[in-house]
Amino acid sequence: MYKVYVFGALSYVKNPAETKACYDKIGLVREEICLQAYVPYLQTDLVNNPDITPREVFDQDKHQVSISDLIIAYLGFLSFGVGMELAYAENNKIPIILMYEKGKRISRFPRGIPTVIAEIQCNDCEDTLHQLKSVLLKWKE
Predict the structure, then answer these.
(1) What backbone phi and psi angles, to 5 degrees, belong to 131?
(2) Domains plus CATH for the chain?
(3) Global pTM value
(4) Which of 65, 72, 71 is nearest to 43 (CA)?
């Protein structure tokens, strides 16, 4: 079974509960098509896991990225952590799917990562799920 790591900004997002719910739904789509989902906020989110040290978050999330077969990254909000996770994925030559809302200005740097296999520009979470399922099924072939 393929291991898929999904992540995006959690700090300073406009609606953290809605963002986390969308990450959860993405995890369910992956499981629906038999991909093992790892959603980092469930393990290392500051709100849900305040006792985990910054170093433990770094070590755990870096390790999970390095053992993943595919990375799914939401780029709709600025985040140092997302940038670092993308760099680790690229360094390990792990395929990456980028997601963000239509009309958002996204830095060309992450969009130019050589291991990016798809960019999903979406209207909302449901649109993201529909497009993501299609991309994942093609990737899995």
Answers:
(1) -65, -40
(2) 2-140 (3.40.50.450)
(3) 0.88
(4) 65
Helical (H) or strand (E) element with 26? helix 16-32
pLDDT in tens, 32-62: 777 887 877 777 777 778 899 999 989 999 9
**For residue 104, with 0-12 CB atoms within 10 Å meaning exposed, 13-18 middle and 19 or more buried, which class applies?**
exposed
Q: Could you tell me which residues are beta bridge partners of residue 5? A: 38, 71
Give Cα 88 distance to the centre of its chain.
Answer: 13
Name the amino acid, one letter, at 29: V
**Phi and psi, residue 7, nearest 5°:** -155, 170
Contacts of 88 (CB under 8 A, 6+ apart): 62, 65, 66
